[in-house]
What does this fold into?
Amino acid sequence: MFKARMRFSKTDEAAYISHLDLMHCMQRVIARAQLPVWYTEGFNQHIYISIALPLSTGYSGECEFLDFNCTADEIPADAVERMNAVMPRGLSVQEIYPLSDGGQKVREIAYSKFEITWEFDDGVPENFCRDVEELFAREEILILKRSKRGEKEVNIKDLMKGISLEQDTDCVRAYAILGAGNNNLSPEYVTRTITAEYPQYAPDGVSYHHLMTYDTNLNEFR
It folds into this structure.
């Protein structure tokens, strides 16, 4: 038996599947695909899986990771095809690979890259990009960040590795590298920071899409 890792995407309608429902869905799909996986022991046996950095409900992503224990000598050559043949719409497996040396640990994840799309029914406000770029160029931007221990004032710039903007006719897309894991910064705080500073720039719609995951040195997590 060895540990294996699956990289998958969660888009369209699947973005609205909660983490718990996603876990149940993946367990059923793995069973239907007849992959050689390890089940927990005891009265309520089930396929043991773990998902790194679960997305908030409503977020989409193309670089999500799921770990499981494989009971065969190797991963079946057609494992990806088997999985995708029985996946619900919006979920898709890109690759499954062994972690012969244990692989990178989830605790090594330090940053996530998000695409944030702000939509404006009447077109992008004049000077939006200029003002937002100037805002995030500051050395200090204090926000109240929530955690299980309550609210704490933090400098949002300490939890960011950069942000860039691309303007379209009726929307602006931001590409932001934000803290993950122990120093997590939800991309929603980026939106809140803008609307707190510039209430006139409140968007008519917002979407969040997870693009990439990195370690502390900004190396791609695998």
Residues 19-32 form the longest helix (14 residues). The chain has a mean pLDDT of 93. The radius of gyration is 20 Å.
